Amino acid sequence: MQLEFRVAKRDDQAEMISLWINCGLVVPWNDPEKDFERKMSHSPEQFLVVEREGVIIASIMFGYDGHRGSVNYLAVLPECQKMGIGERMMSEVERRLELDGCPKINLQIRNTNVNVIKFYEAVGYKVDPVLCVGKRLIADD
Q: 0.90 cut: is pTM over it?
């Protein structure tokens, strides 16, 4: 299977949002169009897609704030899952973040998403004894 990794482009938006919906990543409190636009406006080089035969089958957003790396919107089309694509994407992100001097990646996973938790554990991530808290600064509704 020939896969092409590349940086996301603005005209990928509709296809990527469809991917995120297909993967169950879109939630009512996050507007995927705004999420896409925010990333394209801020460090778009840290927004990757995987194409197969010209069709986007996977995406990943990542970042590094000088202390920790982060990953969001890791999505692989359901029919393309369990083929190593997600693992390859995480390896590429880890490689890029390590080149930037990033010592650790922190992830946020909904505690009900058991399959995603198992995926990350399988690629070497461990549950840290921390509590994630948040405060919305800009409402997406």
A: no
